[in-house]
Write a sequence for this structure.
């Protein structure tokens, strides 16, 4: 019997059905791997969320979201040492929070959104102008770098890390400057979540006034939602609308900054190229969850959300907010806060204090 040639495995030819199937399955496989990679961090956030929820029932004045962020801060050294936890924590702190905001939108009507947005404009614009002017004057007095004081001022006056992310491609600061600004903003977000509800009780603010206060005096969406949720359902709904209306202020701010940066300094091709790269695309400045929030409110306005479902939606939103705040606590970078130095932290503190006082003053003096 003659020697036989070993059979070689058949490889799919280019353009064959097997190759096409393999290529089509590649994105699904990659997505599955990303999901599995996020699981450890999701599991840790879920565990702490459960603990915070259990502790929140006997302590309603504090609330599960505030307890969640405190637990997250206490456990934050763990993900610093275990990078495998970070993808899931990042997903929970961003995407889960955005979904929670959309769920809150399903409990409101478009008429309520419009009325709240318009009525909050005097306080919102007042605090915005005061904070931006103070950032320039105080920042220069403290000799804080121009880019850093711009980022801290915009972040404090509008929407925290989201505003910093929107402004960064325009002014092009150093990576370390962005990190310092975000660390500074985060520190006073945490302070607002812990302090503002108690301040509201001391001043006897009703749900409407506290929602307006939280929506205009707290910069990051997550912290606004956390502080207002711990105060009450009505305060949370009002604060979210105020905050999302305030978020839109990033559009004119970015356009103004882009115009300032793009002023012709020299007639060179390089300058033209730089200006072209720094043009602002307005559509990219509007977050997707704001559009989804309005869509959810529209669905509710049409009567497509049954009343029996409303209570469950509020409970779901609170649970998602607690999970997101827990993940934000887990993301705490004390090293970044320490590296930011004293002067940026002092600037951030003074702006935070000024916005707090000006917001309360405008609310208490208003009609």
């Amino acid at each position: 019997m003659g020697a036989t040639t070993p059979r070689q495995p058949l490889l799919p030819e280019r353009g064959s059905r097997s190759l096409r199937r393999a290529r089509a399955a590649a994105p699904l496989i990659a997505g599955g791997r990303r999901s599995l990679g996020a699981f450890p961090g999701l599991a840790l956030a879920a565990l702490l969320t459960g603990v915070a929820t259990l502790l929140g029932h006997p302590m309603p004045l504090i609330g599960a979201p505030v307890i969640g962020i405190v637990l997250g801060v206490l456990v934050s050294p763990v993900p610093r040492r275990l990078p495998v936890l970070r993808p899931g924590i990042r997903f929970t702190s961003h995407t889960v929070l955005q979904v929670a905001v959309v769920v809150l939108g399903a409990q409101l009507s478009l008429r309520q959104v419009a009325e709240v947005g318009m009525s909050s404009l005097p306080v919102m614009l007042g605090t915005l102008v005061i904070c931006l002017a103070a950032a320039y004057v105080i920042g220069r007095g403290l000799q804080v770098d121009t880019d850093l004081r711009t980022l801290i001022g915009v972040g404090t006056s509008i929407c925290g890390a989201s505003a910093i992310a929107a402004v960064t491609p325009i002014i092009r600061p150093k990576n370390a400057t962005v990190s310092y600004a975000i660390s500074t903003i985060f520190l006073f977000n945490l302070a607002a979540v812990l302090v503002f509800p108690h301040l509201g009780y001391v001043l006897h603010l009703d749900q409407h006034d506290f929602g307006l206060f939280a929506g205009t005096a707290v910069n990051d969406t997550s912290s606004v939602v956390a502080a207002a949720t711990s105060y009450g359902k009505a305060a949370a709904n009002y604060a979210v609308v105020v905050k999302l209306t305030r978020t839109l202020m990033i559009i004119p701010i970015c356009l103004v900054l882009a115009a300032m940066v793009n002023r012709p300094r020299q007639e060179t091709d390089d300058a033209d190229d730089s200006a072209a790269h720094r043009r602002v695309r307005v559509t990219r400045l509007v977050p997707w969850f704001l559009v989804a929030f309005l869509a959810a409110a529209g669905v509710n306005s049409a009567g497509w959300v049954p009343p029996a479902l409303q209570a469950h939606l509020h409970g779901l939103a609170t649970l998602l907010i607690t999970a997101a705040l827990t993940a934000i606590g887990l993301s705490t970078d004390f090293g970044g806060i320490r590296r930011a130095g004293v002067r940026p932290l002092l600037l951030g503190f003074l702006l935070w204090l000024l916005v707090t006082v000006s917001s309360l003053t405008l609310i208490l003096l208003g009609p």
